[in-house]
């Protein structure tokens, strides 16, 4: 019966581990995305990504200056 007890303990341990790892990715994403494109409202992480976005998606427009 030793294996039965180990199995139950392993199941409890795995359940606790899986429960801790679950979280909302929407919250983490909202914290990471700080800059948004004024034209198409795409959310980006930083000013460099905004500049790259403008050069590829809006080549005729000028990227806005960095606002801190």
TrEMBL record:
<dbReference type="Pfam" id="PF12874">
    <property type="entry name" value="zf-met"/>
</dbReference>
<protein>
    <recommendedName>
        <fullName>C2H2-type domain-containing protein</fullName>
    </recommendedName>
</protein>
<dbReference type="Pfam" id="PF04419">
    <property type="entry name" value="SERF-like_N"/>
</dbReference>
<dbReference type="InterPro" id="IPR026939">
    <property type="entry name" value="ZNF706/At2g23090_sf"/>
</dbReference>
<feature type="region of interest" description="Disordered">
    <location>
        <begin position="1"/>
        <end position="25"/>
    </location>
</feature>
<dbReference type="InterPro" id="IPR045230">
    <property type="entry name" value="MBS1/2-like"/>
</dbReference>
<dbReference type="GO" id="GO:0005634">
    <property type="term" value="C:nucleus"/>
</dbReference>
<feature type="domain" description="C2H2-type">
    <location>
        <begin position="37"/>
        <end position="58"/>
    </location>
</feature>
<dbReference type="InterPro" id="IPR013087">
    <property type="entry name" value="Znf_C2H2_type"/>
</dbReference>
<keyword id="KW-0963">Cytoplasm</keyword>
<feature type="compositionally biased region" description="Basic and acidic residues">
    <location>
        <begin position="1"/>
        <end position="19"/>
    </location>
</feature>
<dbReference type="GO" id="GO:0005737">
    <property type="term" value="C:cytoplasm"/>
</dbReference>
<keyword id="KW-0539">Nucleus</keyword>
<dbReference type="InterPro" id="IPR007513">
    <property type="entry name" value="SERF-like_N"/>
</dbReference>
């Amino acid at each position: 019966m030793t294996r039965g007890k180990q199995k139950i303990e392993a199941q409890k341990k795995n359940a606790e581990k899986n429960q801790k790892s679950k979280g909302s990715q929407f919250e983490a994403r909202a914290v990471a995305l700080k800059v948004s494109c004024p034209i198409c409202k795409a959310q980006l992480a930083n000013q460099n990504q905004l500049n790259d976005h403008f050069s590829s998606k809006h080549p005729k427009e000028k990227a806005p200056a960095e606002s801190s």
